[in-house]
């Protein structure tokens, strides 16, 4: 039986040769992402800016009467409504910002929802309300805060863990890779103006967890090789480690992307943004573990003495092949 | 590698069988559960509100409301006690400004007596000696009562406890199944009600304080003053939207009214003459006799029925109402009358609750999410399974069996803990399909590598498992860290995602490392392979 090998045996690609260009590119994309977020802003959902969103289906018409809705809901005096198709042509989402009086009256968001729902039902007897979300200003501020804190905590906690399990240079490398992944995902959402809501924060936290998988596998191999080949040049050693783990990196990223691709194409509409964020995060996470995390180790002068040698002296450089006895 | 003791095989197998068994009640659906033997465990996974449809409502009280209400109650108690004192203590210039109650004792010789009267009103209910109010006497005759922080905190806690009970009674009265009502923080209550037909009715019911009062109408009030919002001395003004005189408000006497919290029953009915929807109420014996006295002394005069600070109607008292029951008329529909009846039956809220967050999902959208989530999960699983077999052959097959067992175990563990599956949780499930094979990829790639370096089959497998385990462990710990943070900071559905993720991580390490190792060991022992197709 011939088995599929996506990555040929014993690759010897000089990944780290490109490290300066790659690092410049990474930093540029990070800056571009931040600039995008600054310039275009994120399309925050009601979770984070307050207001309300209604999802409705018009069961007896082919297409939802969007202009009509815009007029009837605009006439309620809460300001302009953002009305968009959502899934099929007869499904819409109606988004509305917090009314101005909401500052003093937290219940205003919920009252606005009730008013819009009753207007919809009165004007269109065939309407089916599929979902309603209304969030007051105070609650949305809290959600925003906890979301931001949890992202920050996750990045710091995981970097500290890497530091404890490896060395501080690895922790720094991991942190940079994470900043890269998170910043680029933010950039994607600023660029596409997809709705940024609580689910996306969940996706970001998961990306933080998973994009580190690659980083850790590479780090683990670097540590192993540092002990094994004490005289090898650090760049060659990093290249060797990345190449040795390349097959695994490609395989795992692929299975993840397959699963997430299924979610994007066939999964529920409500978590489309979540799936896209995860897909993108896994993709950039794979890149960042090679081109963000590893080069930083060079600049932070990681060498054979970074790890206190304990059981490292038994194998000499070059003595890689050959069967050996294991007790 | 070869020595995989029998006890290990048996205990691993038992664990797997247990996991799969626990998952079955959830997987066979309600139709299949009828045939499920009763002696077996039958816990199932709960579906989150976003999957089965339902409403999540966050209610919040304003502590300032509790404080001002307390001030009002204190004023009434002070007035009543001073009047009741022997001899009567005259007070005046009462004010509730700036969160403190202040008043003057008219006769300076009565200051000590007044203090005696106030003392029991202001001491704390607790045994700690902590006072609820501080008493201060300024300029010899002015009393200033300042609420203490501890007393206020106590009052807020009590109000929220009572409010939670009232909310629970109201939702039970609506007849919905399995509502969840929990206190959150100091001033919030979370209400979750699955599968609702009319979420707006629930919102209306929760947002209503339902404080009912009966007060005599003050006819001496000058209409012009009324229009400007000025009340005669001894009266106060309430808005009256349905006022037949056309004025927006009405003046009622401060004193001599009774409150509507002394009810034993309330129900929707119809007015005999007009057939309009009304609410019939029945007082308890104390409330009944008070109401009888009020109506007896005021035949021919109207009294205002006030609900949450707004006058519903002001009917004439045609004859004394002695039976302890009365009828509340107003501009009702059958629904709104019914709703008020429910609110009155379950008691008034001690504090106004405001809806600060609402999330409702209709049952159709939930069903759609489940269907699409299932399709995505099946496609993802089939694709990953195929991919693994094509890539790793026999070892891929083992990984696939481990993955399948892993999915059963996740469902089983969730069922044991009665965990809730949310829509993001389904995403977590699909994600687990993609990531759980990671451990096997790591192991298998390492075995391939060791074979290339010339190790013999058994050694290669041995070293592959050993060396890969370290990276597997570290990688999954970081995922657990992210999962814990998700659980700590996430809201409801996201918490569900974190739960699936963490259970998936733990069980995937077990199935992908321990279980496949067992398969491989048993196969190696039996087949003694000299060559390895991997």
UniProtKB/TrEMBL annotation, chain A:
The keyword Protein transport belongs to this UniProt entry's keyword annotation: yes
Annotated localization: Cell membrane
Gene3D superfamilies recorded: Multidrug efflux transporter AcrB transmembrane domain
InterPro entries, sorted: SecD/SecF_arch_bac, SecD/SecF_bac, SecD/SecF_CS, SecD_SecF_C, SecD_SecF_C_bact, SecF_bac
Transmembrane segment boundaries: 21-39, 146-164, 171-192, 198-219, 240-265, 271-294
Protein export membrane protein SecD/SecF C-terminal domain location: 120-301
Record membrane topology: Multi-pass membrane protein
Keywords: Cell membrane, Membrane, Protein transport, Translocation, Transmembrane, Transmembrane helix, Transport
A matching Pfam family: SecD_SecF_C
Zinc-finger among keywords: no
Family designation: Belongs to the SecD/SecF family. SecF subfamily.
HAMAP family according to UniProt: SecF_B
Role this protein plays: Part of the Sec protein translocase complex. Interacts with the SecYEG preprotein conducting channel. SecDF uses the proton motive force (PMF) to complete protein translocation after the ATP-dependent function of SecA.
Quaternary structure, from the entry: Forms a complex with SecD. Part of the essential Sec protein translocation apparatus which comprises SecA, SecYEG and auxiliary proteins SecDF-YajC and YidC.
Name under which the protein is recorded: Protein-export membrane protein SecF
Gene name as annotated: secF
UniProtKB/TrEMBL annotation, chain B:
Compartments it resides in: Cell membrane
Keywords: Cell membrane, Membrane, Protein transport, Translocation, Transmembrane, Transmembrane helix, Transport
Membrane topology: Multi-pass membrane protein
Domain Protein translocase subunit SecDF P1: 160-218
Keyword Protein transport: yes
TM annotation in the entry: 373-390, 397-417, 423-443, 471-490, 496-524
Domain SecDF P1 head subdomain: 249-351
Main location: membrane
Domain Protein export membrane protein SecD/SecF C-terminal: 352-524
Matches recorded under InterPro entries: SecD, SecD/SecF_arch_bac, SecD/SecF_CS, SecD_1st, SecD_SecF_C, SecD_SecF_C_bact, SecDF_P1_head
Superkingdom of the organism of origin: Bacteria
UniProt similarity note: Belongs to the SecD/SecF family. SecD subfamily.
Function: Part of the Sec protein translocase complex. Interacts with the SecYEG preprotein conducting channel. SecDF uses the proton motive force (PMF) to complete protein translocation after the ATP-dependent function of SecA.
HAMAP family: SecD_B (MF_01463_B)
Assembly information from the UniProt record: Forms a complex with SecF. Part of the essential Sec protein translocation apparatus which comprises SecA, SecYEG and auxiliary proteins SecDF-YajC and YidC.
Protein name: Protein translocase subunit SecD
Source organism of this protein record: Parasphingorhabdus flavimaris
Gene: secD
């Amino acid at each position: 039986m011939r088995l599929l090998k996506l990555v040929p045996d014993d690759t010897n690609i000089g990944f780290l040769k490109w490290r300066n260009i790659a690092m410049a590119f990474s930093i540029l994309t990070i800056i571009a992402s931040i600039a995008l977020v600054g310039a275009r802003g994120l399309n925050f959902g009601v979770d984070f800016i307050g207001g309300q969103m209604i999802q409705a289906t018009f069961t007896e018409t082919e297409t939802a009467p969007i202009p009509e809705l815009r007029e009837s809901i605009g006439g309620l005096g809460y300001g302009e409504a953002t009305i968009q198709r959502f899934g099929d042509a007869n499904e819409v989402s109606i988004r509305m910002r917090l009314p101005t009086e909401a500052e003093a009256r937290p219940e205003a968001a919920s009252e606005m929802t009730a008013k819009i729902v009753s207007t919809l039902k009165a004007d269109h007897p065939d309407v089916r309300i599929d979902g309603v979300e209304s969030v007051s200003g105070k609650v949305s501020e809290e959600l925003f805060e906890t979301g931001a804190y949890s992202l920050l905590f996750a990045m710091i906690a995981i970097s500290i863990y890497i530091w404890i399990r490896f060395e501080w240079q690895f922790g720094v490398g991991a942190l940079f890779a994470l900043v890269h992944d998170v910043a680029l995902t933010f950039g994607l959402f600023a660029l596409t103006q997809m709705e940024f809501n609580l689910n996306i924060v969940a996706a970001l936290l998961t990306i933080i967890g998973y994009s580190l998988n690659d980083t850790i596998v590479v780090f683990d191999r670097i540590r192993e090789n540092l002990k094994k080949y004490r005289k090898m040049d650090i760049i060659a050693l990093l290249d060797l480690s990345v190449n040795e783990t390349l097959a695994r990196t490609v395989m795992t990223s692929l299975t993840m992307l397959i699963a997430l691709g299924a979610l994007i194409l066939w999964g529920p509409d409500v978590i489309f943004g979540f799936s896209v964020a995860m897909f993108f995060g896994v993709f950039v996470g794979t890149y960042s573990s090679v081109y963000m995390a590893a080069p930083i180790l060079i600049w932070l002068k990681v060498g054979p003495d970074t790890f206190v040698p304990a059981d490292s002296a038994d194998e000499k450089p070059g003595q890689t092949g050959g069967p050996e006895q294991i007790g | 590698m070869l020595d995989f003791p029998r006890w290990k095989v048996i205990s691993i197998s038992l664990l797997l069988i247990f996991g799969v068994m626990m998952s079955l009640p959830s997987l066979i659906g309600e139709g299949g559960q009828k045939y499920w033997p009763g002696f077996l465990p039958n816990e199932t996974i709960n579906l989150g509100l976003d999957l089965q449809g339902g409403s999540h409502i966050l209610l919040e009280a304003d502590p300032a409301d509790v404080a001002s209400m307390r001030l009002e109650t204190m004023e009434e108690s002070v007035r009543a006690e001073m009047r009741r004192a022997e001899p009567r203590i005259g007070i005046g210039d009462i004010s509730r400004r700036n969160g403190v109650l202040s008043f003057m004792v008219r006769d300076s010789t009565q200051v000590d007596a007044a203090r005696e009267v106030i003392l029991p009103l202001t001491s704390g209910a607790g045994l700690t000696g902590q006072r609820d109010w501080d008493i201060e006497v300024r300029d010899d005759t002015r009393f200033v009562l300042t609420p203490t922080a501890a007393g206020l905190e106590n009052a807020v806690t009590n109000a929220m406890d009572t409010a939670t009970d009232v909310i629970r009674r109201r939702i039970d009265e609506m007849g919905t199944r399995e509502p969840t009502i929990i206190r959150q923080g100091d001033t919030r209550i979370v209400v979750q009600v699955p599968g609702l037909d009319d979420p707006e009715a629930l919102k209306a019911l929760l947002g209503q304080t339902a404080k009912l009062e009966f007060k005599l109408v003050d006819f001496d009030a000058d209409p012009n003053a009324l229009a400007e919002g000025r009340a005669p001395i001894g009266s106060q003004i309430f808005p009256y939207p349905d006022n037949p005189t056309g004025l927006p408000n009405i003046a009622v006497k401060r004193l001599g009214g009774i409150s509507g919290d002394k009810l034993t029953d309330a129900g929707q009915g119809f007015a005999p003459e007009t057939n309009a929807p009304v609410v019939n109420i029945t007082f308890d014996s104390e409330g009944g006799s008070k109401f009888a006295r009020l109506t007896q002394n005021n035949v021919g005069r109207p009294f205002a029925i006030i609900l949450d600070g707004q006058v519903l109607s002001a009917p004439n008292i045609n004859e004394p109402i002695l039976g302890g029951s009365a009828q509340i008329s107003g501009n009702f529909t059958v629904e709104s009358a019914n709703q008020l009846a429910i609110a009155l039956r379950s008691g008034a809220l001690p504090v106004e609750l405001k809806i600060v967050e609402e999330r409702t999902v209709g049952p159709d959208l939930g069903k759609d999410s489940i269907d699409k989530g299932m399709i995505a999960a099946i496609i993802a699983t089939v694709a990953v399974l195929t991919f693994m077999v094509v890539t790793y052959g026999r070892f891929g097959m083992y990984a696939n069996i481990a993955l399948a067992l892993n999915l059963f175990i996740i469902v089983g563990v969730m069922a044991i803990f009665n965990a809730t599956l949310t829509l993001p949780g389904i995403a977590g499930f699909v994600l687990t399909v993609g990531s759980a094979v990671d451990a096997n990829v790591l192991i298998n790639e390492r075995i391939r590598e060791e074979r290339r370096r010339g190790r013999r089959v058994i050694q290669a497998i041995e070293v592959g498992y050993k060396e890969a385990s370290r990276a597997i462990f570290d990688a999954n710990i970081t995922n657990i860290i992210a999962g814990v943070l998700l659980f700590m900071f996430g809201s409801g559905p996201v918490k569900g995602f974190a739960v699936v993720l963490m259970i998936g991580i733990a069980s995937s390490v077990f199935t992908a490392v321990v279980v496949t190792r067992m398969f491989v060991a048993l196969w190696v022992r039996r087949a003694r392979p000299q060559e390895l197709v991997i």
